[in-house]
């Protein structure tokens, strides 16, 4: 099994036409994640094309994207000034999980966004996080998929680069992972170590968890 993302994940990319959004959308699609739509206000009706000829519809709003695609997850590649609004829009549209990659979001903005997400029963991962990957099932974010392998160990980390280091060492030792989670390094994050540990505790295939903090 896995936690939070798996083969049933249906992903919308917020900021799909930006530099980071478009690049990582291609990477996520290449890994096999079901990217069912993108959102960029003013570009609704356009199409994003994958490396293998896939077509992903672009919408003006999350509400439209979710209603048209049945998406249950979003990932945010939106500039800091607009990222908290993107998180709130995703929660209002009814997705179960929002993965916020953006760093530098004003703290007060995130305080409001986290409260809004909780009121709408939406889990936020991040902000300022590398995302999440369940090896062989789904990738949401920027974690390099070349370093992971399926197996029985969960990984939780505040630091993006230390996440990669821990995963590489596990994989090189022949120890695969159920899910690797970067919870984010900002002062206010939506999913804590405890939250992630509780999710892993409910996963029958996770036999151990590596947990990594970060100085500061």
Question: Could you explain the architecture of this structure?
Answer:
There is one protein chain. 32% of the residues lie in helices and 26% in strands. It is an alpha/beta fold. It has one domain (10-212): Rossmann fold, CATH 3.40.50. The chain has a seven-stranded mixed β-sheet, with helices on both faces. It has a five-stranded mixed β-sheet with strand order 9-8-11-10-12, with helices on both faces. It is globular and about 45 Å long. It starts with 9 loop residues before the first strand and ends with a strand. The mean pLDDT is 97.
In short:
This protein has 216 residues and is of the alpha/beta class.
The gross shape turns out to be globular
Largest sheet entry: 7 strands, mixed
| Rg, Cα atoms, Å | 16 Å
Helix content: 25-40%
Number of helices: 6
Q: The CATH topology is what?
A: Rossmann fold
- The parts where pLDDT drops under 50 for at least 5 residues are none
The helix/strand series, from N terminus to C terminus, equals EHEEEHEHEHEEEEHEHE
Number of domains: 1
**The CATH C-level class name:** Alpha Beta
Beta-strand segment tally: 12
CATH architecture call: 3-Layer(aba) Sandwich
Determine the structural class based on helices, strands and strand pairing: alpha/beta
If strands are numbered along the chain, what order do they take across the biggest sheet?
Answer: 3-4-2-1-5-6-7
Could you name the CATH homologous superfamily?
A: NAD(P)-binding Rossmann-like Domain
Strand content: 25-35%
Integer average pLDDT: 97
Distance between the termini: 33 Å
Organism: marine metagenome
Protein name: CoA-binding domain-containing protein
Keywords: Ligase, Nucleotide-binding
InterPro entries: Citrt_syn/SCS-alpha_CS, CoA-bd, NAD(P)-bd_dom_sf, SUCC_ACL_C, Succinyl-CoA_synth-like
């Amino acid at each position: 099994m896995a936690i939070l993302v798996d083969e049933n994940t249906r992903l919308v990319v917020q900021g799909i036409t930006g530099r980071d959004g478009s690049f990582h959308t291609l990477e996520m699609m290449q890994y096999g994640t079901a990217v069912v739509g993108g959102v960029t206000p003013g570009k609704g009706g356009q199409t994003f094309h994958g490396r293998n000829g896939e077509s992903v519809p672009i919408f003006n709003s999350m509400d439209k994207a979710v209603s048209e695609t049945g998406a249950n997850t979003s990932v945010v590649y939106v500039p800091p000034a607009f990222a908290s609004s993107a998180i709130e829009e995703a929660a209002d549209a009814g997705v179960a999980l929002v993965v916020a990659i953006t760093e530098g979001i004003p703290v007060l903005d995130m305080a409001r966004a986290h409260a809004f997400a909780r009121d709408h029963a939406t889990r936020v991962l991040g902000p300022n996080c590398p995302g999440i990957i369940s090896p062989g099932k789904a990738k949401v974010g920027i974690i390099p998929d070349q370093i992971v392998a399926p197996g029985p160990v969960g990984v939780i980390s505040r630091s993006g680069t230390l996440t990669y280091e821990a995963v590489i060492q596990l994989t090189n030792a022949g120890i695969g992972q159920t899910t690797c989670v970067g919870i984010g390094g900002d002062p206010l994050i939506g999913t804590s170590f405890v939250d992630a540990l509780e999710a892993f505790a409910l996963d029958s295939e996770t036999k151990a968890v590596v947990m990594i903090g970060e100085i500061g």
